[in-house]
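ugh ok fine here u go
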Amino acid sequence: MIKEFKAFISRGNVVDLAVGVIIGGAFSTIVSSLVNDILMPIIGMILGGIDFSNLQIQIGEAKILYGSFIQNVLDFLIVAFCVFIFVKFINKLSKLGHKKEQKKETKEEIVETELTILKEIRDNLISNKKTKIKKK
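structure:
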């Protein structure tokens, strides 16, 4: 069982997932701070000094904190947009690396094709020389 667990933990996907979760948590804290400390005060000023975190409706003894909900929706949208931009950037980098590999492969293919053609020309020249010598 210990060997299986060790094999499971050492697989690349598990480690990548763990790193992603840790970085995601740290990233979420940064984005929450961006939203709470920078964007929401600006949005509140634009909307006439509204503080979303204090928006609520009292129904009997229950408080419906719809301002907190708006805050969380904005957090989600900003995090989703940041992740979108990050993934788009990573995809662009991987495409650049892939294009370089393709160019390298294409150059190698061209060189191989040129060598093949040159060998065929050489072989034709040699066979033509032999035919001319035999005719004389």
